[in-house]
């Protein structure tokens, strides 16, 4: 059984999944775009991929912060006043 983080907290699992998901999504999407456009791998072509990945990771972490262990948005933990 995995332990979900409580409302307004993050655990190591949240951070790991967030960055792994963001990395895989942005890299795969970016590489496909670069190859489809016939471009070469330079800082100018890779930079937007990294920015998209970071944005996705931060979005996931914010989502984790505002959900409780039952995946309810903006709701305190069950059993707490």
- What distance lies between the first and last C-alpha atoms, to the nearest angstrom? 26 Å
Percent helix, as a range, is 55-70%
Shape: rod-shaped
Measured by DSSP, the beta-strand proportion falls in under 5%
Main sheet: strands, sense, barrel: none
| Strand segment count | 0
Whole-number mean pLDDT? 83
List the uncertain runs: none
Gyration radius over CA: 17 Å
What count of helical segments does DSSP give? 2
Structural class: mainly alpha
Please trace the helix and strand order, writing H or E for each element. HH
Description:
The protein has helices at 12-37, 43-65. 9% of the residues are buried. The protein is built from two helices and no strands. The model has no long low-confidence stretch (mean pLDDT 83). With 81 residues, the protein is mostly helical.
Please render the helix and strand layout as text.
Elements lengths: L11 H26 L5 H23 L16
Helix pairs in contact: 1-2
Features:
81 residues, mainly alpha, rod-shaped
Short description:
The chain has 81 residues and is an all-alpha fold. 60% of the residues lie in helices and 0% in strands. Helix 1 packs antiparallel against helix 2.
């Amino acid at each position: 059984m995995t332990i979900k983080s409580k409302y307004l907290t993050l655990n190591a699992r949240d951070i790991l999944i967030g960055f792994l998901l963001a990395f895989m999504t942005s890299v795969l999407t970016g590489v496909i775009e670069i190859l489809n456009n016939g471009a070469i791998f330079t800082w100018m072509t890779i930079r937007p991929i990294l920015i998209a990945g970071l944005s996705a990771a931060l979005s996931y972490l914010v989502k984790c912060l505002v959900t409780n262990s039952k995946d309810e948005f903006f709701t305190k933990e069950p059993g707490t006043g």
